[in-house]
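Translate structure to sequence.
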């Protein structure tokens, strides 16, 4: 329930202005805010109040309450391409594929939530092609750029009205910011950075993630709250096969968002050269570990990547040494990748690294240690010195090209 601290309330009417449901008014007799029965606990008024006069208190849901929730919902995160047009992030399609697998047991509706500015939303039919039954679309000028407050208000409003049983987010920069805010707003559970999902006998979502530094895999359930919410690592689930004949339902919804409810604004965007390197979308990655020896030897790794039209990535060890940067780090604390070819140079194969690249189609490992754990998962393993093997490979590659 929404509680009002009458000592702090000064009757400014900001809460009345920003409420999407006209569920709060300022009584002219005592100049204090009053909550009506139409309140959905969306929290827009709490964000806007400057005097800490409003708080949300949640009650424990009963079994009957939980049974009112149904369906799998996915946040359809958008991103800008090179020419500033919005497009749907790849992780959304991966989550649609996983949702279809889970739905073999649940047999419920799969929906995607799209938020954005009017007239700039990318074509949504592709979401139906990849498994969505419904698309909920909210267009608002204040949703052009991502903001925690604006997106939380919109999605919270939808969750309260539609009552999905499961809600997925990609574990992207924005997804990791948005999901916990919504979970706190609606007092729901949240499991972060999941690498697997399943449905148990009680039809609860089993959410699996690495724990204790990746040494164990923890399986987590949320038996007392709905929706069951989780963020999933990009490139961890297979993108489903596209079926262009599939169709779905478009449901537009409106939400009242005022400027004063959004406490941040973008002043300027500066994209560094490093941030333009997207190892998550690369087909070929050449990844260096501590076995590379020193920073100067990274030139050989970069040359190999360039010659085979790939991108250089690295393990966490090189980032901690300051030899490489975090945007190209693969692993539990870095990025999850799924290239067609992953070449690991001087990487031992700790579980924390393997979590980030286990979905690679082909893994080639080169290491001087024949007992290195990475050889247990590699498709092709070479025991030897990378400073002897790579130059020989490049020499042979250049020779073949001259012949052609």
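Result:
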């Amino acid at each position: 329930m929404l509680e009002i601290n009458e000592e702090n309330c000064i009757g400014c009417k900001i809460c009345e202005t920003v409420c999407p449901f006209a569920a709060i008014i300022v009584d002219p007799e005592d100049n204090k805010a009053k909550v009506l029965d139409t309140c959905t606990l969306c929290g827009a008024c709490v964000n806007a109040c400057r005097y800490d006069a409003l708080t949300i208190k949640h009650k424990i849901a009963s079994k009957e309450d939980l049974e009112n929730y149904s369906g799998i919902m996915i946040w359809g995160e958008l991103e800008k391409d090179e020419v500033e047009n919005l497009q749907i992030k790849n992780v959304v399609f991966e989550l649609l594929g996983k949702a279809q697998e889970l739905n073999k047991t649940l047999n419920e509706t799969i929906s995607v939530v799209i938020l954005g500015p009017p007239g700039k939303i990318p074509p949504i039919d592709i979401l139906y092609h990849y498994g969505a039954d419904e698309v909920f679309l909210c267009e608002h000028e204040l949703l052009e750029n991502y903001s925690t407050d604006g997106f939380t208000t919109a999605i919270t409003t939808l969750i309260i009205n539609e009552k999905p049983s499961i809600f997925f987010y990609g574990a992207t920069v924005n997804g990791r910011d948005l999901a916990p805010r919504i979970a706190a707003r609606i007092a729901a559970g949240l499991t972060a950075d999941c690498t697997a999902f399943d449905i148990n006998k009680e039809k609860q979502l089993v959410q699996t993630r690495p724990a204790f530094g990746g040494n164990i895999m923890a399986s987590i359930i949320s038996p007392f709250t709905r929706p069951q919410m989780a963020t999933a690592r990009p490139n961890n689930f297979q993108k489903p096969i596209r079926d262009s004949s599939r169709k779905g339902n478009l449901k537009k919804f409106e939400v009242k968002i005022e400027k004063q409810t959004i406490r941040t604004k973008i002043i300027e965007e500066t994209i560094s050269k490093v941030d333009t390197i997207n190892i998550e979308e690369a087909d070929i990655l050449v990844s260096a570990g501590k076995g590379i020896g020193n920073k100067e030897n990274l030139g050989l790794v970069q040359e190999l990547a360039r010659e085979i039209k790939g991108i250089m990535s690295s393990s966490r060890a090189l980032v901690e040494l300051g030899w490489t940067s975090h945007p190209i780090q693969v692993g539990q604390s870095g990025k999850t990748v799924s290239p067609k070819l992953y070449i690991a140079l001087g990487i031992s194969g700790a579980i924390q690294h393997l979590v980030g690249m286990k979905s690679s189609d082909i893994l080639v490992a080169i290491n001087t240690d024949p007992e290195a754990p990475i050889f247990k998962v590699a498709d092709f393993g070479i025991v030897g010195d990378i400073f002897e093997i790579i130059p020989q490979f490049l020499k042979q590659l250049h020779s073949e090209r001259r012949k052609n």
